[in-house]
Amino acid sequence: GRGQGQTLSMIVGLGDYKGGETLVEGRPYGIRYNPLEFNGWKQLHWTAPFSGERFSLVFFTPAMTLAEDADDHMNEDEIATKLADAHSLSISTILKPLQFRQESTDALVIMELLDSEKCAYELKPNADIQGFTLEDHACALDVGAHIGVFSRLALSKGCKHIIAYEPEPSNFELLTNNLEKRNPSSLPTIELHSEAVAHGPSQLRKLVRARNQNDGTQNTWRHSLEEYSQYNDVDKTKDLPSESQRNVLERLDVTSTPFFGGALVEGVTLVKLDCEGAEIDILLSDESARAESWLDTTDLVIEWSFTKERRVSVMHRAIRNLKEAGFTVYYEGQESWWDTDQGALWPYPNDLVIFAHKK
């Protein structure tokens, strides 16, 4: 395992008891002083009834190096600064240094994307998949561009043109700074739009600013259109964990543009969708199932917002649309218990990254 239950684990039972087998996908295994290895990430497992005193030990390998890493003693802002500085140096002939807000979730975005060993939006090939890379795309559409980290990463990997959409004003200000070219007349070319992207016609909508985290960290990456927001207003008399949190959420008027027939244009080969729930209706739409709707797109990377819609069956409907449009789809945990159990709800607190590719 890698510290989150993935791949192999080993369990052994101790004590004086009867029964208590470990069932893996319905098959019983007697584990009393008899270790069992199985895939705890993909295989549904549980314990049979028992009598007596039963203990169990579970062994797995955490995702860490044996040698102590200096980064272990750095906070998120320090790690993000280190990653941002290295990235900025690698792309210094094109863009100015990457800027971000201290004590905010900006650092988490940087850590997710700019650590080359575990970039959330790339996959290294293995026995099951051919991999997924951001290398050398003609044009990338960045929906939910935040402060521009993904766009900068795509540019650093050879992308020739960026189209970025971000509706939240403070994010858009940083996005503009972070995608300002040193030589405005040189390649690559960059388009910025201070709009939301959603399914349906262009219209005025309400954007809900995310509530800050309980420790006071500024939440900059969960702003969403009101119909998709996971946050609710709280009684003004109720005390919240942090003084930086608002009882009544802040709402802004923003313009939305349609994804199909709007934001997605000819020439785009790579699409990133991280639009805090709006991707659900985009991918469930009839247009999503038509190959022609995707124009020149060959690669998709999607943050599926399980924080907004926990039914796995809804995600499966979106994936069927993508497959009908000609994409091969991959995501971590395919064929695991939550992916195959009819009526399952997403069991984890985070969202899921979905990769799609077509030749």
Describe the structure.
By secondary structure, the chain is α/β, with parallel strands linked by helices. Helices cover about 20% and strands about 25% of the residues. The protein is built from seven helices and 17 strands. A seven-stranded mixed sheet has the order 9-8-7-14-15-17-16, with helices on both faces. α1 packs across α2. The longest helix is centred in the first third of the chain and has 15 residues, at about 75-90. The two termini are about 35 Å apart. About 30% of the residues are buried. The model is unreliable at about 1-5 (pLDDT under 50).
Topology order in helix (H) and strand (E) letters: EEEEEEHHEHEHEEEEEEHEHEHE
How are the strands of the biggest sheet laid out side by side?
Answer: 9-8-7-14-15-17-16
Overall pLDDT, averaged?
91
Q: Low-confidence stretches at least 5 residues in length (pLDDT < 50)?
A: 1-5
| Count of β-strands | 17
Major beta sheet summary: 7 strands, mixed
| Separation of the first and last Cα atoms | 33 Å
User: How much helical structure, as a percent, in the residues?
Assistant: 10-25%
* Continuous helix count: 7
Shape assignment: globular
Rg over CA atoms, rounded to whole Å, is 23 Å
Q: Structural class of the secondary structure composition? A: alpha/beta
Beta-strand percent range: 15-25%
